[in-house]
Amino acid sequence: MSSTANTASHYPTIHKDPTAGPFNMKDYDALYKAFKWEQFADELNLPRENGINKATICIDGHPPEVMERKALIWHSAEDKQEFYTFADLKRETNKFANVLKSLGVQKGDRVFVYLERIPEIFITLFGALKLGAVVGPLFSAFGPEAIKDRLEDSGAMVVVTSPELKDRLDAIRADLPALKHVIIVDRKHSQLHPPQAHEVLYSEAMAKASEQFTAPYTDPDDYSIIHYTSGTTGKPKGAVHRHAAVIAQAATSKYILDLQPETDIYWCTADPGWVTGTSYGMFGPWALGATILVYEGGFKAEDWYKIIQEHHVTVWYTAPTAIRMLMKAGEDVAARFDFSSLRHLCSVGEPLNPEAVVWGQKVFGHVFHDTWWQTETGAMHICNYPCLDVKPGSMGKPFPGVEAGILDEEWKPLPAGEEGHLAIRPQAPSIFRTYWHKEELYNSRFKNGWYITGDRAKMDEDGYYWFIGRADDVINTAGHLVGPFEVESALIEHPAVAEAGVIGKPDPERLEIVKAFISLKAGYEPSEELEKDIKNFVRTRLAAHAYPREIEFLAGLPKTRSGKIMRRLLKARELGLPEGDTSTLED
Ligand code: PRX
Hints:
CATH superfamily of the domain at 84-243: ANL, N-terminal domain
Shape: globular
Number of helices: 19
Largest sheet: 9 strands, mixed
Bound molecules: adenosine-5'-monophosphate-propyl ester
Number of strands: 29
Strand content: 15-25%
Strand order of the largest sheet: 4-3-13-12-14-15-16-17-18
Helix content: 25-40%
Low-confidence stretches: none
CATH architecture of the domain at 84-243: 3-Layer(aba) Sandwich
């Protein structure tokens, strides 16, 4: 690798070997023009004789020698390890599919998994997929409000959970008439109460279940997974993906993550509750037959480094906040570990600062390759590949098969160098098919044949894309999207809160933090204690990652004459920016 000046980010371009990895970037233009997604499905040799079922493709359908390979290495928070081959997973997911069948679950029913990062997440999700159920992962940091929104909206029939998380579900069960069965995975044998009538003990049901199961025919367009994602207004909406999405997830795992299944140990640090944790923590890598490492523990620089060293991780997919936290921990910590196994590093979820790209090269011997995509795109869309020159700070180029554009306010393409709406032609098999029961909202995301991503960006003369920011009020805190409305709704349920306006405040480590402006009801006075109480209220009811880390009490919030809180104005005032048009502001 060598470097030349890169005008766009003031960081030199890092030159790569154009023939490195599976793409030959010398032929990028030709490849881009000739690319067909169907070709990939053929090339990847995915088993498709019984339609396309993610469980069959990722687990059951590998050749015999791959079936004996480790599919999952699980490293627990207590430093214990478990291994599952593809054959093990085939057996366990067959059993779980039979458990669901015996409960009356049918194709299309929604099965949600609300578990800590344990192997049963994988077994139950894939077991449900095998049966043709539509699965939904729930982040274990969610509180009762967050899980209620999702289970209610999707009409979930089954939830798989643990004794530790079950209390949060019990708190809202009465509001979920469609929820018929709760399956409890009691790894630690900590079952606090005897199971209630609607509850099933996973271990008992699995012990009785047959190991034989044949997936029914699955149409490539059948729904496979729902991921709830936040928007500017309203509650989170369920982006629905189809089984065929696995083609794009597998192709990008091969060409962007550069997975070499015979030899790689691949670590994706994303939680399975989010789209990265499924598209690239399960589907793409397993469709290729690669070995996935899952670490149950949380973030701590030493622990993460130890995981890489101990498991000889070769390919690592992580996120900018984590990289910034590793940078903060210092190079002396990193220097105590052996990273010679690492071969390829990628990042997603937030803009990756050029410093972080280059720091990777210094500490691990490899740059971090930024990748851009969304819950809605289901797979990586704009990326840095192993063989593409890296312009630090850029998201890279569209994957062949992806047409991207920068559009003006009339949804027409802008020339290179101009900032506008980042848009994608909805071509990849992974692009979402709808928002669950919100067809109108789904349709509103498309203009002139483009899917409008909600991000602002620009493209340079070389076809590289540069992220500018969100076009809406959605907050990105440590790579997790948070809708201000969700937080405001949780806040006003607190007895002291009269009104709340929520914004994302720039933060050097987490990109943004959630900041709330609050006016109090008569009889309440601002105090440190009240502030703490309100924070805790949102943290436990909504989610540990979405509570306001900062609260400012105001006598009243700026509102339009129609009574809408002007978040834009709150943000401008917070950042000391011009307030813009305030003609609609109430007197
Ligand atoms: O704003 C962009 C940001 O995260 C959003 C998508 O979030 P989500 O649907 O939760 O999916 C996250 C993981 C795929 C995008 O609209 N984002 C994602 N990747 C990048 C990014 N922003 C800048 N650079 C990225 N590489």
